[in-house]
């Protein structure tokens, strides 16, 4: 009987061949797994895409609060990286118009003592952006009305971001009003979004404390508007009890 055993060289060759074959099988199996995963990713992302478009068609808005948007700020994308490094994108350009990131467009809303960002209209009042009676920081805006029928404003033109969700105008104000003084407040274009007058309880003939107001301005999304600190008095404004002043500080757009 021939009991010849394998030599060391023969064993090493066999082991090497088995290792090569195992590697080929493993690579083939891994490729199949990756291919299956890629297929599933493609199907899933396409299903999400179709669901978002269906929701948008039904309700008129995107169903997600924090989508990832493309650089132009108008179309958002769903993105996946496949096993081979390929980047799969679905861009949503079918009528979506919500902006990716919210940013406050109001320039110098904390009032740094200069007119940067702000302008004035009307000539019957004293207007300032370096009043030292500030709510926060060194300066606040100041509008002192003096008994002439006029539309007085400290204003700037801004574009309300077309962002998803609620947008608020947040500001602090402090007023002094004679009994018939006002209305005075904050306007968008020619509409008061907040105002008060000397006839309001606790405001006639006395200085108020700083008060915070948060006003929903979502109806103006995507619009270029004039935002103003405004005083309009058109009723018997030659009388001696129509004067007063308003200070505004820390005015900004915010999201909850």
Question: What structural keywords apply?
Answer:
single chain; 256 residues; alpha+beta; 5-stranded antiparallel sheet; 12 strands
Can you offer a commentary on this structure?
The chain has 256 residues and is an alpha+beta fold. It is built from one helix and twelve strands. A five-stranded antiparallel beta sheet has the order 3-6-11-8-9, with no helix packed on it. Strands 4-5-12-7-10 form a five-stranded antiparallel beta sheet, with no helix packed on it.
Strands, helices and their partners?
Blueprint: H1 8-59, E1 76-81, E2 87-92, E3 119-121, E4 125-131, E5 140-145, E6 150-159, E7 168-177, E8 184-188, E9 191-196, E10 211-216, E11 224-233, E12 244-254
Antiparallel strand pairs: 1-2, 3-6, 4-5, 5-12, 6-11, 7-10, 7-12, 8-9, 8-11
Strand content: 25-35%
**If strands are numbered along the chain, what order do they take across the biggest sheet?**
3-6-11-8-9
Return residue spans where pLDDT drops below 50 for at least 5 consecutive residues: 65-74, 94-100
Order of helices and strands: HEEEEEEEEEEEE
Oligomer: single chain
Q: Give me the secondary-structure category.
A: alpha+beta
Query: Whole-number average pLDDT?
Result: 76
